[in-house]
Design a protein that fits this description.
The protein has about 180 residues and is α/β, with parallel strands linked by helices. The chain has four helices and eight strands; from the N terminus they run H-E-H-E-E-E-E-H-H-E-E-E. Strands 1-7-8-6-5-2-3-4 form an eight-stranded mixed beta sheet. Bound molecules: S-adenosylmethionine (SAM).
């Protein structure tokens, strides 16, 4: 990193991986708001992955070896619950992936879940509880979450699709500190 760049980057973000990432218009599944096709492979390639994966607001994500929490029965989740307050045990995951509805209007229009709408920080709080030390917490949303207690950002990226499917989304990866 050259000196010029270092001087305009806040100290807390220096050393944090930053980029924009483009995907095609196709999604992984036919579900509204599903991950772009190639998104999961990108996570694996970047090593933002874990053996014990939990998806909060899972939708119809195609990952049968994971724990999937969603409020809608039609998504066939392993846990039909509000992802803000789950029955999962403390530190049961080493990778928690959060992809909630991005706005209250969208939660109504796309999923009919407006009564369960929360901003990203409500979900990261629960993620921190269920994530084990050194584990990862990944968010995809229109919001950059507040720094999660006991965690540090390791990546903050803009994710978009071409042709454009929505506004650019904020993608973050945080690592939970060792005890
Ligand atoms: C953006 S979609 C997730 C799509 C998913 N990434 C995929 O690839 O299929 C958001 C999901 O969050 C769910 N949801 C909304 N509010 C929720 C809540 N409070 N707790 C759990 N699930 C919620 C919706 O039912 C919807 O399936």
């Amino acid at each position: 990193m050259d000196n010029k760049e270092t001087s305009i980057v806040p100290k807390t973000m220096q050393g944090v991986y930053r980029t924009t990432k483009c995907f095609g218009a196709k999604n992984q599944n036919k579900y509204k708001g599903g991950f772009p096709s190639g998104f999961i492979n990108w996570l694996k390639k970047m090593n933002w992955w874990g053996e014990r994966r939990v998806y909060l607001c899972a939708g119809k994500v195609d990952d049968s070896e994971s724990i999937r929490v969603d409020i809608k029965e039609e998504c066939n989740p392993t846990h039909l619950e509000d992802a803000r307050n789950t029955s999962l045990e403390d530190e049961c995951a080493d990778c928690v992936i959060i992809d909630p509805p991005y706005l209250k209007e969208l939660s109504k229009e796309l999923y009919g879940t407006e009564e369960y709408y929360h901003g990203i920080n409500a979900f990261t709080k629960e993620a921190e509880r269920i994530c084990s030390p050194k584990g990862l917490i990944i968010t995809l949303s229109y919001e950059i979450p507040k720094r999660i207690p006991n965690c540090d950002f390791i990546a903050v990226c803009g994710v978009y699709q071409i042709p454009a499917m929505s506004y650019m989304r904020c993608f973050t990866v945080s690592r939970k500190n060792d005890k």
